[in-house]
Every structure is written in C-alpha cells, then in structure tokens.
Design a protein that fits this description.
Chain lengths: 352, 352
C-alpha cells in the first residue's frame, strides 16, 4: 500500500452514482482516523460515458486505474429498452474487461441474512455463507463464435475454458477462507456428471487442495441440487467455491434469499496483488429507479467493508459492518421511507 | 400410434423401481377403458445393470425402445459414494444418450404449486408455469476436452453448441404451448450479455417466432435474474424457454419452490414423433432412501399424465392430474405417514 490510501471511484450508470455517493461518505468516515490519508479519484465509465464519447474502457484509463490501491465501483448498464447501446457491450467491454485485465480471480460474495431482514423463505434458518466465484475463466472468457448467422443453418458456440492454474488458485483461496471461519466447510458446486472435463479438473483440484487443509471439510453438489438446498436449507452452506457462471447464478439466488441484492456486496479480488481489486454491489444499474433516491446503498456500503479488509484495514471493515448491522436491525423493511442519502447518513452516524 | 398402447418401462436404480411400480398402477387404471390395450415391456438399465453386465445402453436395447409408443422412466444413478461406477457414466451413457438418440428436443417441466402443498417460500403466490428446456444441444453435447491432464498446465474445455434448427424448434414449441394457456406469455432465459453468440441466436429466434404468435407476449431475463424472480415472485412466470443447462438449474429450483422435486414431473419429448418420447420424475435415484417405501411416487405419476397427453389420451391425462390434485389436497405433508405404495393406491382409488 502506498502512503496514502488511493481509491479509484467508478460510479457508473443508473443508481450507481447514488449508492456510490453514500459508500464514499462511509469510506471517508471509516478511514478518518487512519494514518494513511484517503485520496479519491473519480473515473467516468459506463453506458452514459459510452454514449457521450464512444469509449468503453480506454487503455489510458485502465493504466490509470492500475495505480490505485483499490477500486470502488457502482453499477453499469443501459436501460434494457435503450437500443442505442449494443446489448451487453458495456458489461463485457468495461466491467468484465476490468475483472479480466486486473486478474480478479476471486469474486467474493458473502451471503448473510442479517437479523431483522425479512427473507422470502418461510424458514431460512441461520444463513451466513460466502461464495468464492472464479472470476477470470469458465464460460466468461468470450471464446464463442457463430457460423452462417441469420440463416437456418446458423451454429453458435460458447467455450468454457478452465485451467489448472486458474482453478487451483481460487480453490485454495476458498479453503483458506474456510479455515478462518467457524464451520470450516467448503462445498464445490459444479455439474461434473455432464461437464466432464471441466468438472473433473475442479473435483481433482478440490481433493488436492483439501489435503493441505486438514481442518477443513468439504463436499460436492451439482449446481441444480445447489439451487434446491439454497431454497430448502441454505444454512448448510459455509464456503461455496464454483466457476464463473454457476457463481453468477448462485450469488443472485443467495442475494434473493438473504433479503435482496440491495444488500449483497462483492469483491473482485486479485489475491496476488499484481493489480488493484474492485469492490461493487451485486445489483445492477436499475435504470427504472435511477435518480430518485430510492436505491438502497447498503450493498455498496458493505462493499466498502470488503475493500477495507483487502487494503489492510480490518478494524475499519468490522466497524462498517457493525454500523450496517445496527442500521438494518432498526429498519422496518416494509415501511422504511428513507432516501438513499438518509440510509447512508444513518450508517455514517452509527459509525461515529 | 399402434393399435395397442405399447409402453416401455425403465424402472432404473434406487427409488426408481418403487415409484415406477405406482406409476404403472396408475397408467393401467387410467387406460382401462381405452380402446387400445396397454402393453408394458420392462427394460433393465441403469447403474445396477451396468454393475451386472457392463452395459450402459446396448444398441439392441435402443432399437427395441424405438418400437414403443412412449417410455416411462424412473431414475438412474449410483450412490454418490459408490466408487465402482465412474461418476456420471450412467447419466451420460444411458439417460442423456436416450434423450439425444431419440431426439427429445423438448424437455417439458411443469411447475405448479398444488393447493395444500407447503412451499419453502413465505409468500409463493399462485405458481403455475412450465419450463420448456431444450434437450439436445447446449453445454450437454459432450463436446469437451482436456490437455496435459493432471499437470499444473492442464486445460479443460466444454463447448456449448447451439443451432438455429435446434433453437427454433424448441422456441416454437414454447410459443405453441403458451398460446394454449391463459396468460399466453413466454419468458426467454439466457445470459446473452456474456454468452453473446449463443445468446443472440436465442434472442433473434424468439423475436422471429414471436411474430408468428400475435396473441403471445414475451420478455427476457438473464438466468441470474431469473433465479431471483423464482424466489421473490414466481407467479410472474407462465412459459419459460431456455437452454439445456439453464433449464436443468431452473427446473430444480422450480421443483423446490413448488414443494419439492418429489412432485415434479417431466417429459423428454420428440415433438416430430420420429422416435418415442420419455417421461420421468425430475428427482434422481435417491439411493439413501431406496427400498424403504419412503419415496413419494407423485412425480412419477404426474409424468404418466404427461405421457398420456403425448400419446393422444388427454382426457385420461386430466383424470390422473385431478386424482393427484385431490390426493395432495388431503395430505398433511408434515405428517403423511403413507408408504410409496399407499400413495399410489390412494391415487388409483381417486381415479376410480
Ligand atoms: C453484468 C454481468 C456481466 C455480471 C456477471 O455476469 O458477472 C453481473 O451479473 C454480476 O454478477 O456481476
Ligand atoms: C442426471 C442429469 C444428467 C440430468 C440432467 O442434468 O439433465 C438431471 O439433472 C435432470 O435434470 O434430468
């Protein structure tokens, strides 16, 4: 870490700027007493920026982002009906490009049902697990193609690429995290009865890494079965490790059962620290409620806690989490009339 | 259809034979008054059969199966701990081989929350949708490979193959089914912002086919968002059309929210009728409770209703569904002490 704490801020589109404004308030408050002064630099990226400039992620911006200690990210993406923007362009050319260029191989997504938060499950139990989603391989590599497009003979392929190098480092990260937790249990989620080659690489890797962690137990679930347990018995999970696409699906489901993705934080983490990690709410840009102060900034604020952990300020991270937890406990979700800013302010006040 | 109704029966492994015994009772009762006499032929296939003979699906058996009007299938698969059987072998070389060889391009999976069935969701609403899962393409084609296996340089790939021919026929089937339903709404589920080539083929196909069905509305959800709605608002769905893998995941989740896969039926349907279709419960062989008369045969029995529909006996199909519905309404799920056979007998009695 440099002598100051240099954070790049990418508010993005839709509700991104609103929730990031609150996350920044919390970040400032939480680092107020820290030795390293906080330096924030804003970067304008996203669908709006593309409409104005035609740029997704220019090389200079990518290089500039690399000079920071971490990146705080809001959300990107145009309104679904906006035909000016090729669908998925911003997501791929900016968001995924950042994850891949900065080697964010651990996509960390905690799922915790905070006391006081209503779950859509009738009997959720004590839900407190983390998903360690692989972030740089799998079906996300952009290795697809198409022939005879637009004809009755069209064929389109998508290739999931999995390497021993890529799988091992994320599996090891999952076991390390499990080793620090109470239950010390890793569940591999895949579909190895169908995706044989990738599935067996994942399974063999889990067996090999498990041997290094005698205190950590592990089991295996097919992804279809995992969605069932996520519904009927989510408290069975401690640490889930899975590939990029299964992780995408399971973490949205995990967000839903723990009270909504308005509360779900994530970190795109480069554990080798060869480039800055990026912290972002799991939710998207939600253009339908943008600019109305209706968005819940909690997921963005919990992402700040993950950021603080990563940059070596675990105490500040815990304080943010506790402030969020106490704010949540005082909410009546059904009737919480607070604006985005009021929720942010309340969490800042709880921090003080 | 031949002059008799020729049904092949594959009980399979684990709880397969128990639930199929009840399904057969119901099939007999429901076709009692039909003009075409019912002829049942048993085929022994599955993990146990493989252990005895080393055969997964011999060519002669496949040819013999093709002579039937439909196939009633239980479940296959060894106990997870049974190391004598290469993992996934039976699933791929028998179950998936049947789906592919018999061109079961429509994998139909209704999801209905029957009155009286407790859902794990706190407020499920009125859940009654069908998933039309593609059955012969996508990541299920077995088009994977691996290099330098077991070394730190291993690379494993899985290719999802999607064709205009394959996508169009299943999308058209989904719109046809939607057109027959009250709400007449199709939701395409995919992940086209990441899986660009396959995703765009699916989207373009939906737009093209939608133009043929002016009474049917349609929308699109990314698979991650679909798992959220499945949790928070499943009554929004009417007909979901999706690829083989997303369909696998979503239908297990759909089974869970509608009271468990013990109730979830499915049809592997060749709508061109160039080969027999196959009907099976969504659940697996559940070796842990096999042979104990603990399995719920309802999913297998509802699969009989789908079979009857397909072989041109829709009235018999409705009668089976109504018998199941009335049996379910009389259950207390928490304390239902009935054996597999008792549930089957009760449904037969309700049919009478
Ligand atoms: C926007 C999209 C590309 C992204 C993903 O699929 O990873 C999002 O769903 C997420 O989970 O962060
Ligand atoms: C057993 C397995 C190969 C199968 C599948 O993945 O299709 C099962 O999960 C199903 O949904 O019927």
């Amino acid at each position: 870490m440099s002598e100051s704490l240099n954070i790049a801020v990418i508010p993005g589109d839709g509700i991104g700027p609103e929730v990031i404004a609150e996350a920044v308030k919390v970040l400032k408050k939480a680092t107020e007493q820290s030795d390293a002064p906080l330096v924030l630099t804003d970067y304008k990226l996203g669908a709006e920026h593309w409409l104005e400039t035609g740029e997704t992620l220019p090389e200079e911006t990518l290089e500039a982002l690399k000079t920071h200690d971490a990146i705080l990210f809001g959300a990107v993406g145009a309104a679904p009906g906006d035909t000016r923007i090729p669908s998925g362009l911003i997501e791929r050319e900016m968001l995924l490009k950042l994850r891949f260029s900065l080697d964010h191989f651990v996509n960390l997504r905690p799922a915790k049902l905070y006391p006081g938060v209503p779950s859509p499950l009738a009997a959720p139990g004590d839900v407190d697990f983390i998903v360690v989603r692989e972030g740089t391989e799998g079906p996300y590599v952009g290795n697809g193609g198409a022939l005879r497009v637009g004809t009755p003979h069209e064929i389109a392929t998508e290739v999931s690429v999995n390497t021993a190098y890529g799988v091992e480092r994320v599996v090891r990260d999952a076991f390390r995290r499990a080793n620090e937790r109470d239950r010390k249990h890793v569940t591999l989620v895949h579909k190895h009865n169908v995706l044989v080659y990738a599935g067996h690489l994942w399974r063999r890797t889990v067996e090999a890494v498990a041997a290094e962690f005698p205190n950590v137990t592990h089991d295996y679930l097919h992804v279809d079965a995992a969605t069932i347990f996520m519904t009927t018995n989510p408290s069975r999970f401690d640490v889930i490790v899975t590939d990029n696409l299964f992780g995408d699906i399971l973490t949205d489901q995990a967000g839903a059962i723990t009270g909504g993705i308005g509360l779900a934080a994530s970190g795109n983490i480069n554990m080798d620290r060869t480039a800055p990690s990026m912290f972002e709410p799991v939710h998207g840009s939600a253009p339908d409620i943008a600019g109305q102060q209706k968005a819940d900034p909690t997921a963005a604020i919990l992402s700040v806690a993950l950021l603080l952990d990563h940059v070596g300020l675990p105490k500040a991270a815990r304080r943010v989490e506790e402030a969020v937890e106490s704010d949540i406990a005082s909410r009546d979700e059904m009737t919480d009339p607070r604006t985005t800013a009021e929720i942010g302010d309340a969490i800042v006040a709880a921090l003080a």
